[in-house]
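Team,

Forwarding the record for the chain on the shared tracking sheet. I've put the sequence and predicted structure together so nobody has to dig through attachments.
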Amino acid sequence: MVKGLNRKFGSDVFIAANTHLMHGDFVSDPQAYGFTTSKIACCGQGPYNGLGLCTVLSNLCPNREIYAFWDPFHPSEKANKLIVQKVMTGSAKYMHPVNLSTVIALDSMSG
């Protein structure tokens, strides 16, 4: 789909980010990314803080920097920063056909 759109416009103006793979990296090996765990959310209720959204009644972790997830659904701030870094400078493993930094650099040369 991205190739077809770029071909239609004659330039690599559309990029695809494999955020599922990015996400999977820190879920499967949280310690490699500076997290203590990816199995427990920083804020939530029930087992693993995995029930419901973060509310005033939720359990709250003492250090959100070591958790991959803020609540059962959302990556933590640190995890989101890692995802953005991959979008900006990631390899072809994560970004296709190029990362966002490359698009910005190419755009600045054409303008």
